[in-house]
Specification:
Number of helices: 10
Largest sheet: 6 strands, parallel
Strand order of the largest sheet: 3-4-2-1-5-6
Shape: globular
Helix content: 40-55%
Strand content: 5-15%
Number of strands: 6
Structural class: alpha/beta
């Protein structure tokens, strides 16, 4: 075990030495909690707990590497079709982790702002209250930002922005001719200013981006990294490999410029 840890630490250093460009904004589709649990004879709730622990580790690794924005795909609008027990387990997990954000001294020392993306009207009232508490407690921070995508769907996000623009046209505050990409972007994510995604990571050996941040990711032609480990088994090595893909893409752009 000691030898394995030593080899892994050495490999991490090798990977880090191969990276010049670090993405400003990484978005992650945390896939595979349930399959991880099934393979290990664990309950689904235990699989989700293991995934949440990996998320905490991931944030530490990302901050150390200089990443400033992390967006995590935690619960999609499609996930509401799961059975009621699993949804309730996830709600309790989200509530617990959001409370940790409020109480964790590292969040305040490192000035980490947390904000939730998605249709929060779809969330249970008690979870919405925890969301609001965590957002309020970290609203003044801007060194790092964590975006949690809860009750989120990329197409739904664009539809909600379109509805608001239609409402403003009908109210006479804007004209149809004024609507351009900048205005649409201003109305996405409840008006929060979120930078374009530089890198999407998806775990669990799935090779699709699943309606995740289509405006900020696809519109920015971000790098995408698919990897085999289920989310609870994701390591710093996997993060560095993903960032290396982004680095190679940026390097090629620099050479062809």
């Amino acid at each position: 075990m000691i030898l394995l840890d030593t080899i892994q630490a050495l490999y991490e250093r090798v990977l880090r030495s191969q990276v010049t460009y670090v993405p400003r904004h990484i978005a992650i589709i945390q896939d595979g909690n349930r399959r991880f649990a099934k393979n290990r004879g664990m309950s689904r709730a235990e699989g989700h707990q293991a995934g949440a622990d990996t998320t905490e580790n991931l944030l530490e690794w990302a901050w150390d590497l200089g990443v400033r924005h992390i967006t995590l795909y935690c619960f999609s609008t499609e996930n509401f079709s799961r059975d009621r027990k699993e949804i309730q387990e996830l709600v309790e997990l989200f509530k617990d982790r959001l409370q940790r954000v409020v109480e964790d001294r590292r969040v305040h020392q490192n000035q980490i702002r947390l904000q939730v993306l998605g249709d929060r009207d779809l969330l249970p009232e008690d979870l919405r209250a925890r969301v609001e508490d965590a957002e309020k407690a970290t609203a003044g921070y801007d060194r790092h930002v964590i975006n949690l995508a809860l009750a989120y769907g990329g197409r739904n996000e664009i539809v909600r922005a379109a509805r608001e623009l239609v409402r403003q046209v009908r109210a006479g505050t804007i004209t149809p001719d004024q609507i351009d990409p900048a205005m649409v972007e201003k109305h996405l994510h409840d008006g929060r200013k979120i930078p374009p995604v530089d890198l999407i990571i998806r775990t669990g050996n799935e090779r699709r981006t699943s309606n995740f941040l289509p405006w900020l990711a696809n519109g920015n032609e971000c790098a995408v990294y698919f990897c085999a480990p289920y989310w609870p088994a994701f390591r710093k090595i996997d993060l560095l490999r993903a960032i290396r893909v982004y680095d190679q893409r940026v390097s090629l752009k620099q050479q062809s410029a």
